Automatic annotation (TrEMBL):
Belongs to the arginase family. Residues 1-19 form the signal peptide. SUPFAM superfamilies: Arginase/deacetylase. One of its GO terms (biological process) is putrescine biosynthetic process from arginine, via agmatine. This is Agmatinase 1. One of its GO terms (molecular function) is agmatinase activity. It comes from Cryoendolithus antarcticus. Keywords: Hydrolase, Manganese, Metal-binding, Polyamine biosynthesis, Signal, Spermidine biosynthesis. Coiled coil: none annotated. It comes from the Eukaryota. Its cofactor is Mn(2+). It holds the Pfam family Arginase. Transmembrane segments: none annotated.
């Protein structure tokens, strides 16, 4: 036999051996796939199989990628395809793929899809090890997909987002403990928060904003962009000025994690105060710790409806490199999550995670994993405190 022939015969034998059906012996005590329900009402880890591994109806990592594998609902539709009413929900995840209001690195239009990607291991089986709570067990949370926003005209795009927020928040809530659905927006650059606040004012009036960010974002358009054109003055550094001007903010708002320089230390900071804000700086965490920061946020906003906006650049670039205007010297992901979870009981009426630009992330998805977990915390805060609107 020539050497080549011998090799071919050996390969044929190997293939035949591989074709044999391999049956692993049962593991002592576990006679079903990992993740299957343990029986007796003990919950399973949600890897997707019940007692029957060929039951494909509930798998965790298959199908389309929604936030935390939540059901997708076409929340913007007038009716369902068959003419029925759109499914009801209590908390709506809404993507806002808009990033033409940025002053540095673009890319946050891919934030919603990135955050969903980072959320694949968050799911209804998860109980928080610190609180023992499951964020999805009381209120109905759905993913509405992204609002369709034109990429070539900011004015039209923001009008589209305003409308999306009005439509999604105008439906009847699913649960009878909450009567208006609340929205968590996946940004998008920070300009998108303006649309959210234009819709929360319809239900709750002016609100306190807890604004996690390294930048103040109350810049007067006269200072940032507006010198170029009126249009350019509407951007991710001026939206809180605009929200104040439109009467959407209470004078009990507060920034947390600030560390970026201001352009004019007298005017910018005086103006910031006039817009309704107090400031917790990033390094305050070294002096006071997370608990004092939580206490201050709760005191400042006490008795008001609160919107929580998280610019992912509040985190240090070590924890969130994938953002447009990264500033060193920020908080860690653990510190931010501790502070967010510490706000339990707050009257939260809406929230967002913005400025996630996945193109600058690393192969480990550091930023989108963090952003997805921040959304998870916001959902838990909403589940902890069902709210009724103070207007209509
Ligand atoms: C949905 O309703 C709006 C306003 O009532 C209407 O203008 C629009 O054409 C409707 N869309 C569809 C697809 O029926
Ligand atoms: C808000 O409160 C600050 C002091 O905390 C004050 O300087 C500012 O004038 C107030 N603004 C309004 C609109 O009441
Ligand atoms: C909020 O205000 C109420 C009533 O004034 C007060 O009893 C409570 O201690 C305040 N809570 C915080 C966290 O400041
Ligand atoms: Mn910002």
């Amino acid at each position: 036999m020539s050497p080549q022939k011998a090799l071919l015969t050996a390969a044929a034998l190997l293939t035949a051996a591989n074709a044999r059906e391999i049956t692993f012996p049962p593991v002592s005590g576990v006679q079903q796939p990992v993740g299957a329900s343990y029986g007796n009402g003990v919950g399973n880890m949600g890897f997707g199989f019940g007692d029957d591994p060929l039951d494909l109806s509930n798998s965790q990592f298959a199908g389309l990628t929604t936030y935390a594998n939540l059901p997708y609902v076409h929340c913007l539709a007038n009716t369902t395809a068959t003419g029925g009413e759109v499914e009801s929900y209590d908390i709506a995840i809404l993507g806002a793929p808009f990033d033409t209001g940025v002053t540095a690195r673009p890319g946050a239009r891919y934030g919603p899809i990135g955050i969903r990607q980072g959320s694949r291991r968050i799911g209804p089986f998860a109980y928080n090890i610190y609180t023992g709570k499951n964020a999805f067990s009381t209120l109905k949370v759905v993913d509405c997909g992204d609002a369709p926003l034109t990429v070539l005209d900011n004015t039209i795009a923001l009008a589209q987002l305003d409308k999306a927020h009005r439509v999604v928040s105008a439906r009847k809530a699913d649960s009878d403990v909450a009567s208006v659905p609340r929205i968590i927006t996946l940004g998008g650059d920070h300009t998108t928060t303006l649309s959210a606040l234009r819709s929360t004012v319809d239900h709750w009036g002016a609100v306190s904003v807890i604004h996690f960010d390294s930048h103040i974002d109350t810049w007067d358009p006269k200072v940032l962009g507006g010198g170029v054109s009126h249009y350019a003055g509407v951007n991710h550094g001026t939206f809180l000025h605009l929200a104040h001007e439109e009467g959407l903010l209470l004078n009990s708002s507060i920034h947390a994690g600030i560390r970026a320089p201001v352009g004019n230390k007298h005017y910018d900071l005086r103006h910031d105060k006039a817009c309704g804000f107090d400031i917790i700086k990033a390094r305050d965490i070294d002096r006071f710790g997370t608990q004092k920061i939580i206490d201050h946020l709760l005191e400042r906003t006490n008795g008001t409806s609160v919107y929580i906006s998280v610019d992912i650049d509040v985190l240090d670039p070590a924890f969130a490199p994938a953002t447009g205007t990264a500033e060193v010297g920020g908080w860690s992901t653990r510190e931010l999550l501790t502070i967010l979870d510490g706000l339990s009981g707050i009257h939260i009426i809406g929230g967002d995670v913005v400025e996630v630009a996945p193109i600058y992330d690393n192969p480990g998805e550091t930023t989108t994993l963090a952003a997805a977990e921040v959304v998870h915390s916001l959902i838990q805060l909403m589940a902890d405190t069902p709210v009724k609107p103070t207007k209509n």
